[in-house]
Every structure is written in C-alpha cells, then in structure tokens.
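Archive record:
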Amino acid sequence: MLLIVGLVAIGIGIGLGVVLAGVLGGKKIERLRAQADLLASRAKDDAATAAEKILLDAERKALDWKEAVDKELEAARSEQRAVDRRLAKREDNLERKEDALAARCDQLDARKAKLADRESEIDALVEKQRRELERIAQIDRAQAKELLLERVAEQARVEMGKVTRKIVEDAEDEAKDEAKEILINAIQRYANEHSSESTVRTVAIPSDDMKGRIIGREGRNIRAIEKATGADVIVDDTPGVIVVSCFDKVRQTIAVRALETLVTDGRMHPTRIEEVVEKVKSEMQEKIVKAGKDAVVELGLKGIHPKIIEAMGRLTYRTSYGQNVLNHSIEVAYLSQIIADQLGLDGKLARRCGFLHDIGKAMDHEMEGGHPKIGMDFARQYGEKNEAVLNAIGAHHADMPATTWYTPIIMAADAVSAARPGARRESMERYIQRLNDLQDIALSQPGVTEAYAVQAGREVRVMINADRVTDDEAFLIAHEIAKKVSNEMTFPGEIKVTVLRETRAIEIAR
C-alpha cells in the first residue's frame, strides 16, 4: 500500500514538475521572441540607414562625374570652336590666294600673248639676220650648220677627253692600290725559282776518237740514234763534246741520256743503240709520271686522272720562252690561290685552275690549234667536269669569254709569273720586231712626232705636237695607243704608254 502511495506521489510530483516547466518555458520563449523582434527592428533601421547612405554616396559620385563630363564637353566645344575659327581663317586665306592666282594667270596670259607677238618679231628678225649673214659670209645655212657641228664635235671631243681622263684616273686610283696590294702580297708569299733551257745541249766525250764511233761506219750509228730518238746529233770540230739539238725537250733528253749511256758503256752499234734508247724511254716515262704526281702532291690536288697527271709531268721537259712550263704552272697555281683567298673566293679551286691552265702545251705540237682549246678538250675528255677549271684552261689567253671569276685570276697570275724579270727570254729577232711594232703603232696616231720603245720594250714614250694636241687629247692618244697595242701585239706582262706634250718658247736676243 505504501508502495502504491509512494508511486502515486512520485507520479503527481512528476506531473507537477512538467506543468511547472512548461509554464516557465513559455515565459522564456516569449521573452526571447520579444528580444528577436527588437533585434529585427534595429537591423531594419540600420539597413534603411545604410541604404540611404549608399544612395547619397551614389548621387554625390554621379554629380561629380556629371560635372567632370560637362567640363570635358566644354573643353571639347572650346577646342572645336577654335578649330572652326582657324579653318574659317584658312578658307579666307585660300580664297584670297585663289583670287591672286587668278589675277596672276590673267597677267601670264597677257604676257604670253605679248611674248607670242615678240617671238614672231624675233623670228622675222632672225630670218633677216640669217639672210644677211649668208650674204656676208657667202655660205648657206647647210654649210654653216656643218661648220657648227664640226666645232661642237671638236668641243665635245675635248670635253669627252676631260671626262674620260677624270673617270679613268679615279678608277685607276681606286683599283691600282687594291690590285697592287693583292699582287704584291701574292708575289711576296710565293717566290719560286725559274729555270730556262735551250733547244741545244752538249754531251761530253772522253776523246775525239769517240766521235768516229758515234758516227759509225758510213754514218749508220748516228742515223740509228737520230731515228730512234727524233733528235739531231751534231758532230763537229769542237773538242770533247757533241751537240744534241731538238725542239721537243723529251726527245732531246732521251737522246742526251742515251748518248751518255752509250759513251760510258763503249758498245756502239745500231742494235745496242735501239736497246739503250728503249730503256731510256721507259725510264723517262717513269720520271714524267713521277714529276706529275709530285706536282699534284705538292699542290694537294685530288681526283685528277692519271692521263692528266702524265700530261702535266711532260711539261717538266717543255719550255715557253725558256721558262719551264711545269714550274710555271705550279707557280701560277700558288699565285692564283693567294689572289682568290684575298678576294674571298675558293683558293683550292683557283689552285686547280692555275695548275692545269697550260696542260694543252703537253700535246699542242702533236695537234692542230692553240694550246688553250687543246688543253680544255683534253681535260674534259679525261674527267675534268668543273666549268671553272675548263673555262680557265680555254679562256686564259682570251680566246673565248670568261664565264667565272677564276679565269681573270688565272690570267693575272699567268702574267705575273711570265713577266717577272728573267722568267722568259725572247730571240733577238722577235725582240727587235716587237720594239719596231710598238713604235709604229705609236707613230700611226695623229699629232705624234716621235716614239721610242724603252725599258726593254716595257714602255713606249711618245712625243706629240703641242700646237695640234691639247693635254686632254694627249690622254686620249695614250688610251688609243694602249688599246691598239693590246689588240694587235702579243707580249708578256704589260706595256706602259707615256705621252709627252711640251711647249717651248725660243727667242734670240741680238
């Protein structure tokens, strides 16, 4: 019972607690709601205040921007008004100028009309004067025109001489320094010895009895030697020597060496002669090939056909005006390389062109034509395909047009090598003939009174009549002589033409 009463009491207590908690919780909720409403009212007031502030700021900024834009617009309007005023002023000026130009045009038209009238008067006056001049001078208009044209032509010729002289002097001054520097540098960097040989060589013999053995019975031995070698053997009264003469240096050398071998051996009969000559020819062929290979190796050339090498080797026994052609070719090769290097071209290609430029001389005595064409065809036949090399071979004597820069380089190097003092020699007859031809060309020019070849034919000095020829015409005469010498004569190196014009005043006192 007590338990039940206790449980009931607990239940009543719990119920009262729940009721009491609900009453207290409702009051708290009411209080919280009141606080929330108060906060909401305050927030609304704050938001309204902030919005009003933002609106005020925006309105103030808009007013500021509007004021700035108004100021810019006003400035632009002011500038536009100034531009309009300037344009209006310019238009006024242009209108005034147009009016002035119109007035000037009217004046010019009036003056043109007056000038036309004056021209008619002048033409009539000129015609009258012309008829009067014809009457006085007793020549018609055509004759006077011809005389005038002759005078104008003479004046033009004098002026042309001045202009030509100035142009040529300027060009020479600019080109000479550079050309001299290149050539001098090339010559200084390569100085080769040169040798000259004669078409006649002697063979020493131990005694004059050997001359009879060389001649043989009824001359059979000497005939066998000449037939086998192609050289002339001359046995005369000169003690201790016999003479071998031949234009072909290879045949001459074979004959000399065969004779030296026969003289040393002592056996002298046609069969032995043929045997020795054949052996010497075989040795000579080996030496020719070796000379060509040595030259190719010395120059560092590659890809050269063996036939070309053999042909170049034969040039060691060929001379031109006494100058060894193989040595000359090697020298031209080095000079060409040096010149090409200084001009910014391929020095190796120039060296090849210079080395092969005279290859035609190895066979020109066996074929018709000049050695440049023969050499070019030979090189092309044996695998030389470079157009620069072929053109340098064929055109180095100007027999055909130069198609590359290397050809004039080879021509210059060839002239340098050939024109060095002592490099070549000429026969006395050819030398005298060249001097006479040089003087005759100079004397053929109008106004020339005397001409002298000096400096061993390297210079011609020309005296002209000072009364007939002016200084500028003297320059033209020198140019014409030099041009004619270049076209009509063949010579190594260059020939200087010096024209002298002198005026002498002579008076005798009594």
